[in-house]
Amino acid sequence: AGLVTGAKVECNYRGRGKFYPGRISNVQENGTFDVDYDDGEKEHGVAAEMLRLIAGAVPVDAAGLVTGAKVECNYRGRG
User: Any residues with CB less than 8 A from the CB of 57 and at least 6 apart, and which?
Assistant: First the structure.
């Protein structure tokens, strides 16, 4: 859990002091993150201290889940 691929975050865009919502699209081997912002922008190589998890958001476990994968989902938790 935490800062993993798929986690909803707010990111300090280009270190300018303003945070915008998005998702972590990739965790780099060097410990930085790639972020896809909700408005369509992208940023690569973001340091962890520039990110904060969005309260209440549940990170996706990246193991086995990739973009385009076919999945089954418990729709609205109704079983």
Answer: 7, 8, 9
Q: List C-alpha distances in Å: 2 to 27, 36, 48, 76.
A: 12, 17, 11, 23
In the chain, the largest separation of any two C-alpha atoms, in whole Å, equals 44
Local structure of residue 20 (DSSP, 8 states): E
Q: Which helix (H) or strand (E) holds 24?
A: strand 19-27
Quote the pTM value.
0.69
Question: Can you read off the two tokens belonging to residue 6?
Answer: 């798929």
**Tens-place pLDDT, residues 30-71:** 999 999 999 999 999 999 999 998 865 555 555 556 666 677
Phi, psi of 2 (to 5 degrees): 105, -135
